[in-house]
Amino acid sequence: MEATQSSFILLVLISSLVSTFAITPSPSASNALVGGYKPIFNITDPHIQDLGKFAVSEHNKQAKTSLKFVNVIKGQMQVVAGINYDLVIAARKGDIRRNYLAVVYERPGGKNKTLTSFKSQLNGV
User: Fold this and answer.
1) Residue 44 sits in which domain range?
2) At the N or C end, where does the chain have fewer CB atoms within 10 A?
3) Distance CA 68, CA 91 (A)
4) What's the CATH number where 85 sits?
5) Structural domains counted in the chain
6) E strand or H helix at 48, and its extent?
7) Percent of the chain scored above 70 by pLDDT?
8) 124 SS3 class
9) CA 92 to CA 68: how far, in whole Å?
10) Is Signal there in the keyword field (predicted)?
């Protein structure tokens, strides 16, 4: 009987430890929390540059302007039900180069994008 009781106590103790570790979030899980903005470190990534081109193209259609995309200078991203990209974009109108702030929402899967904001950045980068 005492061996059975010891086995039971050992089983309860092991179960408690396993359940404690099973519900404790890992450090990488806390880094992937939804909602916060994270910097984009590889700003030259072709996908990021394509998002900048998309933002300028959509802005040109909506505002009936003729900006020419130069490059994405910096940005950050926010994971929501998809990804919000908050980008600083360099674009030209004739000989004048100016920086613009754009927000592009990309739906899960990356196939559909929406320009949600585009405005001139008056004070530089």
Assistant:
1) 33-121
2) N
3) 5
4) 3.10.450.10
5) 1
6) helix 46-63
7) 70
8) coil
9) 5
10) yes
- d(C-alpha 47, C-alpha 119), whole Å: 21
Phi, psi of 89 (to 5 degrees): -120, 135
Rounded Cα gap, residues 83 and 2, in angstroms: 58
Per residue in 5-30, pLDDT (tens digit) is: 666 565 554 655 444 444 333 333 33
- Token pair of 77 as six digits: 């991203």
Question: Quick one: tokens of 105?
Answer: 């929402």
Residue 48 lies in a domain: yes
pLDDT in tens, 69-116: 999 999 999 999 999 999 999 999 999 999 999 999 999 987 899 999
**Dihedral sign of CA atoms 39, 41, 46, 47 in order:** negative
Whether pLDDT at 32 is above 80: no
Q: Has residue 13 been placed in a domain?
A: no
The sign of the CA dihedral 67, 73, 74, 78 is positive
Using 50, 70 and 90 to split pLDDT, how confident is the model at 3? low
